[in-house]
Amino acid sequence: MMVGVVHAVRQFFAQVADIIYPRWCVGCGTPDVSLCDSCTWLWHRGPWWRAESGARYLLAVDDQGDDLSIFPVWARAWYSGSVASALVRWKNMNDCRVDAAFAQLVADIVGDLQIEDAFPAAQWPNVVVVPVASHNSRRRAGRFVAGVIGRSFAQCIGVDFVDALRAKKSRRGGGNVAERGRKSRAQRAVKSFSGYDVILVDDVLTTGATLLGAQRAVSQAGGRVVGAVVLAVTDRP
């Protein structure tokens, strides 16, 4: 009985909030919902896949001259259409209802990822989930999307969430090679990661420069990155 009352009260206040603060799907604009079923389905229609082979900053060369990934990166959707629209709009707003919608999305899809097989190098008693650093202005404005993704992911797989990477102050450029190089050096750890195996989390994978920067920061703080998870992957180099 009490559960039903609580649910009814929550629904009432949600309806009131929608009247005072109207919302639309961040992916397609459907009214009265933060992330509609059609846009949510875009993350459900296919399996997780290894995406690091298209990210040049995450590739090394072995003794035979073949490409070798630094660590596995698992992705669930392509960064295009409504997926791209949803992530861009989410990153540029401070709305706890959208945060909750994406946290639920992560919870719904993470069960399809076979965690121990996905990160074979991980020593599980020592694993923590760490979001890549966001610009300080975004963090202050409540637009830290990697944190929302990471917290939900960590809760679902039953490990600690550690928000301990910060962005270094640097001049922001236009996405060229020099800018990507800066991204690979633009993060620092604010605590020791000694003894920890780290799974990094971000929203979008492009060249891997941001993930590489996070990996370097974790390594400098004594930790080891065993893989990463992203919600989407671009098809651009």
From TrEMBL:
Matching InterPro entries: ComF/GntX_DNA_util-trans (IPR051910), PRTase-like (IPR029057), PRTase_dom (IPR000836)
Superkingdom of source: Bacteria
Assigned keywords, A-Z: Glycosyltransferase, Transferase
Keyword S-adenosyl-L-methionine among record annotations: no
Example GO molecular function: glycosyltransferase activity
Residue span, Phosphoribosyltransferase domain: 122-232
Family that this chain belongs to: Belongs to the ComF/GntX family.
PANTHER family: DNA UTILIZATION PROTEIN YHGH
Protein name: Phosphoribosyltransferase
